[in-house]
Write a structure and sequence with these properties.
57% helix, Glutathione S-transferase Yfyf (Class Pi), Chain A, domain 2, globular, 7% strand, 2 domains, Glutaredoxin, alpha+beta, 4-stranded mixed beta sheet, 4 strands
């Protein structure tokens, strides 16, 4: 891993926030290049040529090696440096458990929760389109099922999703859940373990957790003031 690692991101993106937090926790040196999503900077041909051909973030450039997708980036960084071992364990069984969650996460947490966020919050504000009520109901049902599994299965045995300390599994999960604070959906309602876990993860990863989520909280504050 080179000393001039470039991290292309926007902290409105849940996977970008996850990587931002863990790279800072691990003291991995990097240069942030903020991509303006609303302006479509990621959708340009120059972005495809210079950053990655998938036109997505997060993305990195490590001395000319370009890589997209947050989990791929995480695993690449872990393979290049021991700095991540505390949050992405190197032991075969612990890493397998973390990977088990990360594989489960995409379809069971990211897909319904980000879908609900887009349908209920993003589309009305930036695309000026009303939410599709049928889609909201379907996404809400799927999100509740997954949040219930976090409460009753993943958090059944301890304070964190895997083992006795924070791992990247917790970070990828919580950054997705935190997005819902901009909507009327309360993921912690009726889920005391989930609520306590969120507070533990935030405390264990600050100040970087708050730095990563400041953009969300500022939007929430602005929205609250506008409703007064």
């Amino acid at each position: 891993m080179t000393q001039n690692l470039k991290f292309y991101s926007n902290l409105m993106s849940q996977p970008c926030r996850s990587l931002y937090i863990v790279m800072n926790l691990a003291k991995i040196p990097f240069e942030t290049v903020t991509i303006a999503l609303r302006e479509g900077d990621h959708a340009t041909e120059s972005f495809a040529k210079e950053v990655n051909s998938l036109k997505t973030i997060p993305s990195i450039n490590d001395g000319g090696f370009k890589l997209a997708e947050s989990i791929a980036i995480l695993r690449y960084l872990a393979s290049k440096s021991s700095l991540l071992v505390r949050w992405y364990p190197s032991g075969a069984r612990m890493r397998a458990r973390v990977d088990e969650y990360l594989e489960w996460h995409h379809l069971n947490v990211r897909s319904p929760l980000s879908g609900y966020f887009v349908e209920s919050w993003l589309k009305p504000r930036y695309k000026k389109q009303p939410p599709n009520e049928a889609a909201l109901e379907r996404l809400s049902s799927s999100a509740n099922k997954s949040l219930d599994l976090l409460e009753t299965v993943w958090l059944a045995q301890g304070d964190f999703l895997i083992g006795t300390d924070v791992t990247v599994a917790d970070l990828w999960a919580i950054c997705e859940i935190e997005e819902l604070t901009l909507t009327s959906f309360d993921p912690t309602e009726g889920r005391p373990k989930l609520a306590a876990w969120m507070e533990r993860v935030r405390k264990a990863t600050n100040p970087f957790y708050d730095e990563a989520h400041e953009i969300l909280w500022n939007i929430r504050k602005k929205s609250s003031r506008s409703q007064l």
